[in-house]
Specification:
single chain; 296 residues; mainly alpha; 13 helices; 78% helix
Length: 296
């Protein structure tokens, strides 16, 4: 198996876990846990996972590109808190779609600041996939609230975070990059929870704390487990896959999230789901084919 094929498989598995993550988050929301509390528990689990992998020697830690590691953690923390807040305060479709604008921002930032050249027809593939996502999620744009703004903010900062992640992986291990993301996100979400009374007027119920019972703790730790597996696999794959392919490929996540919502939460699929899914898969398949043609 070639490295490129291996990384495509890693991306598929990672996207599957990312697609399941909103389902666990919605279950936690139904139990009235806030987006910031969910984020906090996600990274408590992540920090424990990093410590376990490092202490047992299963993964190594390196700190070569400290500047890129800082920006990976900083922008990643802002993005994830914005995304979890959006999932609680706007529709899941809008929150997801706005968060996934990070794919556009990542490649735009790469062109602007790192002089990267986008692959041939990449933005056409991205447009095709974006139309597919719109059909899958059937987002209504008749209003725009602060929850939508949080989703857009998460996409913008997420774009910067993924670009920093790509730079980090040139010199540092996947565990190191994930640990930077985890530490920053744990500190930020913890600060928002501790200062809940102060932030309350701005964040509404998105930063409230509810002491979890046994069932709630399992749900919150489930968020941590699913997201850690997804993020570690994505971080590993992006170190060896092209930026265009790895980012475009993640547009399969909203499709999977809609499908899992139908299977596990009995959420209705949109009437355009199959057409939208076909467009997303076509765009991803075309990108993979184009990259294989370059190396064959």
């Amino acid at each position: 198996m070639t490295d490129k094929t291996k990384n495509i498989y890693l991306l598929i598995i990672s996207n599957t876990f990312f697609g399941f993550l909103p389902i666990v988050v919605k279950v936690a929301n139904q139990s009235h846990y806030s987006g910031v509390e969910e984020s906090f528990f996600r990274f408590v689990f992540g920090a424990a996972g990093v410590l376990f992998l490092w202490v047992t020697g299963l993964q190594k830690m390196t700190f070569s590109n400290k500047k890129a590691l800082f920006w990976r953690g900083f922008f990643g923390a802002l993005s994830i808190v914005g995304y979890f807040t959006a999932l609680q305060t706007t529709t899941s479709g809008k929150g997801t779609l706005l968060n996934y604008t990070y794919i556009l921002w990542t490649n735009v930032f790469a062109i602007m600041f790192f002089k990267h050249k986008a692959p041939k027809r990449f933005f056409w593939f991205l447009l095709l996939a974006a139309v597919g996502i719109e059909l899958v999620l059937d987002v209504q744009w008749n209003s725009f609230n602060w929850g939508d703004a949080a989703g857009l903010f998460s996409g913008l900062t997420g774009g910067a975070a993924v670009l920093a992640m790509k730079e980090c992986r040139k010199t540092d291990t996947a565990l190191t990059v994930f640990s930077s993301f985890t530490i920053f996100s744990l500190v930020l979400s913890g600060a928002l929870l501790v200062g809940g009374d102060f932030w309350g007027s701005a964040l509404g119920h998105a930063s409230t704390w509810i002491m979890p019972d046994a069932q709630g703790l399992l749900i919150l730790l489930g968020i941590g487990a699913v997201s850690m597996i997804a993020q570690m696999l994505f971080t590993q794959a992006i170190g060896h896959a092209s930026l265009a392919l790895s980012t475009l490929f993640t547009l399969s996540v909203p499709v999977l999230a809609a499908l899992f919502g139908w299977i596990f939460l009995q959420e209705p699929l949109t009437s355009h789901f199959l057409a939208g899914m076909s467009l997303v898969l076509t765009a991803c398949g075309a990108m993979i084919w184009q990259e294989n043609q370059k190396t064959s």
